[in-house]
Amino acid sequence: PTATVLENTLGGSITWTRTGAGQSVGTLSSGVFTAYKTVKFATLGYTGISVNSTIEVDIMNSNVIGVITRVNGTQTDGVMSNGGTSIEIRVYL
User: Which residues pair with 23 in a beta bridge?
Assistant: First the structure.
């Protein structure tokens, strides 16, 4: 996946890697994704695929965020490719 970063105050860049169909992880070396202090927001733009498209973002550990996209419940690539999808990660210290 390719990310367009509008603002980054996390203390490092997130490296995104595709790990399977509809599944990617973002890794940040500084380990700031602190439990109970990290909030994530994800919104799909127009997908052009299906009205049953979803995105899920989870904090996996202090260094890794996981993103899963699905169509009709099946993990699917290309759901975010038409633009307009946003993922925002906020860390409150």
Answer: 20, 68
